[in-house]
Structures
1.
Amino acid sequence: MSESPHKYLPVFIAEASEQLELLTSELVRIEQEPPAGPLWDSIFRRVHSVKGSAATLGLSAVVDIAHSAETLIGKLKAQRQKPERGQVDLLLQATDALVSEIQRASAEMERARRDEQGASAQLLARLSDASRALPEMTPAPPPATRSTERAQVDPALPRLDVSFSLSRSCQAPGARALIVQRKLKAMGTLLEIEPAPQALMQKKGGVRVAAVLSTSRSIDEVRTAFDGIPEVENVEVRVAPLTSAPPQARKPSDDTKTGPARPITETPTAGDVRVEPTVRVRAQALDQLLDQAAEVLHGIARLREAARHLPENTVVQFEVEIDRVRRTARELHGRVMNARLTPFSSVTERLPRVVRDVAHRLGKEVDLDVQGGAVEMDRTLIDALGDPLTHLVRNALDHGLETGAQRVAAGKSPRGTLVLAARRERDKVLIDVSDDGQGLDAERLRRRAVELGAIAAERAAELTEQQCFELAFLPGLSTRHEATEVSGRGVGLDAVKAAVENLGGKLSVHCTPGKGSRFTLELPLSVSMANLLLVQVGGELYGLPMTRVVVTTEYDLSARGGEGFEARSLAVMGQLVRAHSLAKLFGLPSLAPPGPRPFAVLEVDGLTFALSVDRLVGQEEAVLKPLFPPLDRVRGLAGTTVLGNGRPLLVLDPRGLHEMAEHPQQRARGAA
């Protein structure tokens, strides 16, 4: 019975999608690369790999498009000259068409899966009804011997010994072997295959498979069937001896091998590099595992809380065991967090295509420089960054960078430069989108904001240049009077700001007129372990991230004029820092008794300030979770967690608290 093709579609879809993403980036680069080189070879291999895999699954539309694109690529490569823009555009359109066909195949696979589940449920019900209608029967004893069924084979047909290797980097050797098995069955009668594909499902790559095939096809025809199957190498086909023994995974001989011979052994020899095996895991499975790891940590915290009520002679040993389990759970949580990390390059791979298309449409020449592509971020950040970064890139191309003639007149290179740079700083991720264009026009932004009624003329006249730049984030504000297909409709930067703030982050802009602009996205880690300083204010508990706490201290406010202060300067470690009341920031009554009051001194972006609280409760290690609506809109809050006693706890955002303290008009938004 032949295998259903859609069984292999998940592997094909995942691999083909990855190949096409890389293909898009390489096609954008080919316009700047030398006319002959390894990049053309890589482009050809990617298209050929997608075509070969699609052919094994019968995806004729993918095969036809890939084959035509492959032919064009081969001719362009043979010309050894820079391709024309229209030719690259055509290949990019073919890539888009391949992506669409693969997405269609994925949707059809999902529909087929649902149909099969429905049909299976109906069949199971009918089988169950039929079984209940019959009397019970006594099982027959098993036969003494069991024979192995063999296919009927025409003795006049020759038999071929076929063997091949699965590369060491192969992530799904079982699926690859099944594809080969299906190919061989289509060419004759497959008598033997060892090891069986099912036995390779949980194995690593770097194995050799041997088979015996009864067929009327020639050796060359059988060997050609392997063309285009990824990660299958060292194919060997020969006439089987008359007295055929079970097939052995032989090393390819010098006269039959189709690629470089490489011994396949379990132990790597000197100079042999073993590729670390990997496996694809659904993102949802990682999310669920992370939640379960967090629940274990919460359970351990609750056990520690309950241990306080145990007899003193048993609590010591109990806490030792709790600490051991907690260390294991923390390591598990950390490993799951690391598994969720994704490189910044995964969100920037689509941007070279965006830059190329938009720049061509605007008649501009632009170089894109991506820095920090290896910086790893939580998957939730990567998933949410695609649209904001695309907005910023398109905005820089349309508003920031000048045309070639304008740049030359300004004494610049005719080609503009757009830089995307990512870096990690302690508990945050910083992403800069900068260009060397004309920068923002502060006066024009000020004038446009007044025209739209977004700000009063008197207030606008008081704004500094930097505050005028921040007007670009106002909804509906655009300095372009006519909308184009790229921008000018007043949407974009306000949407970017909202998206970043929804992630608990911050968007800022810095500009030097005539030299360029830089937009900075500052993003927190959305889910992480954190050490918190627990503080009590107005009868409520809050958490402050210890990474932002410089020191804790005490001051007697009654000697300085009582509690009616809005802000004071306190001497901390030889310097004066501004002090604010956390109770007043949140509109809560202070329950602290007269006398010395505890302060937490915090640092944000190089700025140091102090917060007065009613009581310092202690430290707690916690799993942070993002805020849910409507708390995610409250300024001064960063996340939430659950204490060991089961009590929920709000984690404060020091940056938001500082902004609330320095801008009292924003306190209404910060009231919890």
2.
Amino acid sequence: MFLKLRKDTLKNKANFVLRSMILSIATIPAYAWSDAFLNQIAHPPHTIKPNVPFNAPSGYSPAQIQKAYGMSLITNQGEGQIIAIVDAYDSPTIEADLGVFSTTFNLPSCTTANGCFKKVYASGTQPPVDADWGTEIALDVQWAHALAPKAKIILVEAADASNGSLLLGIQTAVQQGANVVSMSWGSPESPSQSQYDSYFNIPNVTFMGSTGDSGNGVNWPAVSPYVIAAGGTSLTLDASGNYISETAWSGSSGGVSQYVQIPAYQVNFANKNNPNKMRGIPDVSSIGDANNGGLSVYDSAAGGWLIMGGTSAAAPAWAGMIAVAKSASTTPLTGLNTLLYHAATTAYSANYHDIVQGSNGSCGPVCTAGPGYDYVTGLGSPQAQNLIKAITGGGSPGTCTRSAPSVNLNPNTTQIIQQNGSVTISIDVVNNDSATCTPSTFNLTTATSSPLIKSALTSSSLNVPAGGGKMTTYMITKASNVANVGSIYTTNITVADTAINRPISTSSYVYIGNALQRKKN
């Protein structure tokens, strides 16, 4: 949830004066601090599964999530990229905790000493420690590193959780050279929020924002048209990390903005139940349900290993994926929101898991996931092996290339049968995707040219490995006892991949020979 454990308050008048001084140094207009929006307190939207043993990780591991979302098929790992994590207050143990996390899961070391990790105080002064925000920091830093193991991490700690202090943190992140910024926090949207959009409209810098954990509703900064809003899902994997299913997580926030007009990239997507043509969030989603799997996080201040979720998990995970995409691109990636929606236009089912079940409230269609874009899961979760290639215009040797399958019939000539006779045809389906792709499930259907013949499949679904993998099913075609002698009947066979809309069809033929000889009494 957007944490309801504690509501931050302004500490005292001295704190107020300090923030005013800080903001006057930054580019926020001098008059702006009088805006109640800047005084508003943001909350980190994470959830923690209760009663979890602290002595060992028991949530999903980085390897499982990498495999589930196709990241394990990408050779780039974020080299040359800088991810900034902007949070409030200080976590004095974060570097050591990151070390435990990295060692446990065999990730590259990320320390101050080797130049991978850096902690910066946005106000120039070390903030006070806050336990809730400290746990948030652990989640954000560790899971950005998990999805982009070779990217550098800058943790920017704001003086407190007010919007004004966090905006200064965002500005500091950009000044520090970040090209991906993760913001796992938010506050209710406001009529004055658009005047701060310039903080997110920075060339070659991508901003990820959590939508919130309170069910249906819209929060800032995720709602900014210059931010990629990340929602949460309930993800089910097998022990090896193979993707089983995914539904909308009931806690994930989302909906239609009251104040932000629909951006051009959403016009063809967030157009249902949106009569005023306003911005919809989220844009994308990934795992957020701590009680169904959840992510392993190490926070020594909280006792050790936790299982965490919330849309707080989705923002840094997506930030890591964006960093990997940027490292795979030969040119700077700008307008990532536009590119993500374009990828849904060109090959939706190849680039995203379309999440069609679940809800985040009782407000009808706006609160309910369904086919295509919806206000609970956005475009869906990534099939990164394809999505990264789509948004970079090429991709690396480790990316997956999808190709249409081959369908071969044996025998593949017209078969002669009698009335009431039958023939068995083998159907071979060959998966021509590159070997780096995950297996594809092909669904087979048949349609006959006449009710005088019937065709039945021994198996209507085949899970075929990529790289030339082949599986076989059989079709039995039978003629009725009144099929027309001398006629040719056709069975059309359609093979469709559930991962991408690329059906292929072929036909089998039978010729009816001699008439059925009936025994005389």
3.
Amino acid sequence: MALKSTNPTTTKSWKKLQVHFDTISTTHLKELFKNNSERAEELTIKWDDFYVDFSKNRITQETLDILIELANEVDLKDAISKYFKGDIINATEGRAVLHTALRAEENSKVFVDGENVMPEVYEVRQKIKTFTDAVVNGKHKGHTGKTITDIVNIGIGGSDLGPAMVVDSLQYYKNHLNTHFVSNVDGDHHKEIVKDLNPETTLFVIVSKTFTTQETLSNANSIRTWFLEHLPEDAVSKHFVAVSTNIESVKAFGIDENNIFPMKDWVGGRFSLWSAVGLSISLSLGYNNFESLLEGARKMDEHFKTTEFDKNIPVISALLTVWYNNFFNAESEAIIPYTQYLNQFATYLQQGIMESNGKYVDRSGNEVNYQTGTIIWGEPGTNSQHAFFQLIHQGTKLIPADFIGFIESLHSNKDHHDKLMSNYFAQTEALMNGKTKEEVLAEFEGTNLSDTEKERLLPFKIFKGNKPTTSILIQKLTPESLGKLIALYEHKIFVQGIIWNIYSYDQFGVELGKQLAKTILNELTDSSNSVKHDSSTQNLIDFYKEKHR
């Protein structure tokens, strides 16, 4: 059954939110805390090793109650049931959305077209384990009998961003293999990666569902050409494996059929790291850590699927986005992890969130009359504090921010970790409270500033505060806790899409530029091909061709 189609702005709860917004929109967070001594406790969810504090958001319990009414009015529970059962909720592409099945327990039953997919899911997982163990333990050797030392993942989009983010985030847990990622079709990119590699000890993982993606195949073929400058053609089968559904094209490339890892069309690319797309994760971290990552995601799945909305972390997170995006007109959200390990996390979420919910047509095919999607950006603290926090603190834009922190550091450096976390706590407090005129004047006391200088400087040093943040505090960065964190945002994306009445899992907007690029490439490589363009594009093409002869 397809998802229901309800324009959220026509619901009773949306109208209640509009009235409620008018009464609360100018209320300062300091006032909300002053009026309710239990606020922090009431608006915090403690689950497993997660402590999620929503209290520094510009909401009251009434706000949450009405937002939950909205979730019920658009029948979110029914949508969640369809999501996990394997119904065709990606209706525009006629597909189920079942990345959750990839981390479900083996005895689960998840049906697609009447067939339980779980036996196949675990068959692929076993294949990943067997291959990973063989490479890591040195049983799988290269053509010349040498053990593998380097892994190169060749993919783009979800076939790159997910694995690259996880491997980078969990580098503390990495084994002896060196892992590299080639994504951009820019030839300089893959040249920089391979220039210091030994082809005799390198394994290449080509990730392309159709084995037709231009960027991935261009890189794979160029790397293959480089490889064959050093080793014979029959060596390809020892050094190249593929994650794909296009068996014949993969075999034609020279890859052994036993080294093809399948994937299904009910797993979208940007949610595919849990599938065979995660092969490079397993190779880099070892299969047990890959399995722990999956287990963490499974635990968050259960929390999301079974917990009432008022204590449901992904649901509350998504409803807050709707609140800020559609009522405060806040167009972006910042993701600020207080660990350098998660330096690629916001980049990864940019695809997950912006590709999923960047839609202007609702599930009935009508153009929406409200904002969907949010711009996602961020960098780790404390680096980000010295980059863009000025805009969040004193700029004219309202930018809700998620602060992600860990109680334990991985290398047990208490001095550094205390300094890091003191900034984590201080920034959310500063964003909430700001700095009043009276506080600035008090700071001026004891200085050598004249009254005239004090008066001149005063307006520049006042912070209004009232900037919303959510604090996600986790015990320790582990494969399991990262799995939970990623799944939290996956489900947040889903809930947002349900509320906004859009299809989150297609990506037709991505395809248009690709189609035009193919046409223009023909023009660049064959002067007899000519297509009419607008004058700007034509001038740019002509200038490029003239200078690039």
